[in-house]
Design goal:
By secondary structure, the chain is mainly α. The chain has five helices and no strands. α3 packs across α4 and α3 packs across α5.
Length: about 150
């Protein structure tokens, strides 16, 4: 099933007809115009989000259907501020969808002969015993504080 089929499933026919029809009396959506808008949106998904449209991923479908409607409104020139809303959609792809999808991540692989070892906890250097002589009246057997506390 292509993106155009997903759009026709989710958007009412009257809305699609209004967004794609060339003549005022047309009663059905122009599938060619819808196909062009779908192609543009799939290209924008690749350009702005770095992903290829996958209709089995609900995130892709939701973003693409919204993009097709905005693209059709921009192509038709019907909606006030359609260009700004389409640019906002592109920015949302870049800022939102790209972060939760693959984002062209580099997988961590190595050919190093070294093997990771489990780290062991060690005391920091400033806890070394040789600092004891720097503390006046240090009492190793009793309190950690060198002075007696009044009773």
């Amino acid at each position: 099933m292509a993106l155009a089929d997903r759009v026709t499933e989710r958007i009412p026919a009257q809305v699609l007809t209004a967004l794609t029809a060339a003549a005022p009396g047309t009663t059905s959506a122009d599938t060619d115009v819808l196909g062009y808008a779908c192609d543009d949106v799939e290209a924008d998904l690749r350009t702005w989000a770095g992903i290829t449209y996958d209709e089995t991923d609900a995130r892709h479908v939701a973003a693409a259907v919204a993009g097709v409607v905005l693209r059709l409104a921009l192509m038709k020139g019907q909606a006030e501020g359609a260009a700004q809303r389409y640019e906002d959609w592109q920015k949302a792809l870049k800022d939102g969808l790209r972060l939760v999808t693959h984002n062209d991540r580099i997988l961590a692989t190595t050919r190093s002969p070294l093997r990771p070892v489990k780290e062991t906890a060690t005391e920091p250097l400033f806890n070394a015993a040789w600092f004891e002589n720097l503390i006046p009246n240090f009492n190793r057997d009793g309190d950690s504080w060198p002075y007696e506390t009044p009773s």
